[in-house]
Amino acid sequence: MKENIDDILEKAARRDGMLTPEGYFDDFARRMEASLPVQPWETEMRDTREGRVMPAGFWQKVRPYVYLAAMFAGVWCMMNMFDMIRSSGDVTIPGNNAILAEAIADDSFISDYCMDGMEPDDLYNDLYEEGFQPASLKNF
Question: What is the CA 16 to chain-centroid distance, rounded?
Fold first, then answer.
């Protein structure tokens, strides 16, 4: 595998002088932090009304953590709402009616009678042709 990588680098033959010195990134973060001075705005807060400098208070220190907690609480609430919406779409059969349960389980019944596109008159005619008795629904 190593020889394949070397072979690809040789084929590319990109020699433009842009190389990093050995060990450059080993302690890069420490050197960068040492070279940057601490800015006054990192430790102080300026009162804009009177132009005086005030030390950072408790709220300035904990504000990012409070915002993070609020974000997670919002995500949790959103997931609960999605769960409630999803579970409310379940079909319930009143009175444990076996005939309705059988009809709902039948895909052809659902596609014929419950999908959009069927006119009510056609539905009534089909039900009467199959021997539907409206008196059987008086339990509902």
Answer: 45
Q: Which amino acid makes up residue 8? A: I
Domain that holds residue 57: 2-87
Give the pTM: 0.31
Is residue 44 helix, strand or coil? strand
Closest CA to 126 of 138, 116, 108, 112: 112
In the chain, the number of structural domains is 2
Over residues 4-38, the pLDDT tens digits come to 666 776 777 666 667 788 888 899 999 998 899 88
Helices (H), the chain: 2-12, 28-35, 40-43, 58-87, 98-105, 107-109, 120-129
Residues 83, 75: Cα–Cα separation, whole Å: 12
